[in-house]
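User
Take a look at the entry that follows and flag anything odd:
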Amino acid sequence: MTISFFVTLSLPLILLNLLQSVIPLPTFMPSGGSMAMRFLRFSGFMFILGTLLAGCSQMNLKNVVKEPSVQVQNIAVREVNLDSIGLDLVMKVTNPNAYTLALAGYDYRIRFNDHQLVEGSTNEGFRVAANASNQIRVPFKVGFKDVMKLLDSMGDSNTLHYEVDADMRLDVPVLNLFNIKSHKKGDVTIPQLPKIAFGDLQVKSFNFSQASFELAMQITNPNDFGLDVKDLDYQFSMGGEKWFDGRIDQTVKLGEKQTTTVKIPVSVSLMKLGSGAFNAIQKGNFTDYSLDANFKLDSTYPALKNLQIPIHYAP
């Protein structure tokens, strides 16, 4: 750093001495030529000096400043909800110089499965210490429906292919001499919500006052990690009228790629149900009912915790 600083200061002095030997410095004494001639000589001197200094300064800075590097490391899932999926673009910036560099911001463009879904820019600056590296996490979100649409085109896979282009801007004029870009292709696994399916409404028992039914809810975990289904609250309606509220406090644990069945109990007054509806249910052709439910989804995956999942089912 000391040598570079000395060279930077010495170049103007050397050039000044050389120019004085070719074009004597103008003086503004009364004697020795007209004022116009002295002004022209002085202007020419300053023009040549400025041009040479600018060129040498550029060449000197090119040699002194080593180009920093930007490496896109990966894309990580940060959070999942029913509106969007939060992700982080993780980049590593390395400064090979013996002094701190200031960066003025960055631009990025991200494609998933050949569809450009994300692009952004920031002027928020940061510094990278001498001979050190900084990791930058750029948060962004993608619409949940957009991601699910892309995953549907992948069949049973929950992996998306991504392609990232990133440009880093430095906070020094000399940075304009460098083109700091990074490009990376990779894959990111998107955690998926459990798949829900229902069976027919089955009659379990009845007496003179009420009938008991059971609705089987099948839950499938499509992920490579475990899921917990907790606190299932539900409301059973017939003919658009609410008839029964219930709650299942038991936690249902699903291993990776596992399917299990939760049986939802329903009790209905026979007087309210009526013989026609009851006979239709016994024959398996009664469809004038609906179930609205809500449960909490938890998992070992950090981005998928304490998520409330609503359900609506009508045959």
